[in-house]
Amino acid sequence: MRPVIANQPQLLPPDLVVDHLQDFVLKTSDVKEMLDELAEFSAVTLADPATAFCSITLIQRKKPVTVASSEEKASRLDETQYSSGDGPCLTAIRRQLVVHIPDLTSDDRWPAYTAAALEAGVGSSLSVPLLLAGEAEAGLNLYSTRSHGFTGDDISMVETYSYHASKALRLAVRISQLAEAKAHLTAAMESRTTIDLATGAIMAQNRCSQETAMKILKIASSTRNVKLRDIAASVVASLSQDPTVRTHFDA
Questions:
Q1: pTM, whole model, 2 decimals?
Q2: Sign of CA dihedral 162, 148, 104, 40
Q3: Residue 248: exposed, middle, or buried by beta-carbon count in 10 A (0-12, 13-18, 19+)?
């Protein structure tokens, strides 16, 4: 067991850890802020905060990205792994197992990562997969500035903690997906409205049918290699500047 260090926060009981993780999801409206708080909380809860820092890696559509970190250097170490395509975190996620490097000076499995970690003053690391449903995969990365910074008790605690953290992260990912879907829907509706306005304007000014007006817009879009909604926006903009303008395009 690690000796108690003066001013070091005491580890929370499991039930309080669960409460804190739930609070992150329920009380924070911004997903990025919630994930950053989760990373900071993980660093404090799972290791000596004076010597450890944490990050969370998320893989979606086969692309890994650090979605949160308690310190900037954690993100930089993650990026080293993404650039080389391999490392303890990516291995933990892909193989769904805990990857513990007790002493980075004696580990040669990932040379690029090891060199970057030692340069950043990291002596040991611990990577744990987080269980997510669907296409996304994730991992919790803990870095310590000293060798053998994670004891056997620490590793057992991290494995238990990761189960509850996975639930919090699943909710965060789901919230993010819903927000993204809402943004896309809003953009689509705005685009549709602009196209409808432009079509109506062309119909009124050229005394043509809706089908003909849409054909005019599509021909202009194809000829100019400009998206249909952008052509429509230019029509609406020209009309708003000068109501007498007759808007039509040569085929």
A1: 0.58
A2: positive
A3: middle
Helix (H) or strand (E) holding 57: strand 52-60
Partners of 138 in the β-ladder? 58, 130
Asked if 165 and 44 sit in the same domain, the reply is yes
Backbone angles phi, psi at 167, to 5 degrees: -65, -45
User: Last residue of a domain, which of 156, 180, 204?
Assistant: 180
Other beta carbons within 10 Å of 95: 10
pLDDT digits (tens, 9 = 90+) for 68-115: 888 889 999 999 999 999 999 999 999 999 999 999 999 999 999 999
Domain that residue 201 falls in: 187-241
In the sheet where 99-101 sits, what is the strand order? 63-69, 52-60, 137-144, 124-130, 99-101
Helix then strand count (H, E) for the chain reads 8, 5
Maximum C-alpha span of the chain = 85
3-state secondary structure of 53: strand
Residue 99 is predicted with a pLDDT of: 95
Cβ–Cβ under 8 Å, residues 232 and 197: yes
Tell me the pLDDT tens digit for each residue of 136-162: 788 889 999 999 988 888 888 888 777
